[in-house]
Amino acid sequence: MTETLDVRGLIFDMDNTLLRSRIDFGRMKGETYAYLATSGILPEDMELERHTTSTLMDAAVRTGRMTEAMAAEMWEIANRIEREGMHGAVLEPGAAELLRELHGRLPLVIVTNNACEAAELALRENGVLHYFDDVIGRDRVTAMKPEPDASLLVLSLYPEIPAGQWLSVGDSWIDGAAATAAGIRFVAYNGDLARMRAMGVQLYGEISQLAQLVDYLD
Question: End-to-end alpha-carbon separation of the chain, Å?
Answer without folding.
Answer: 13
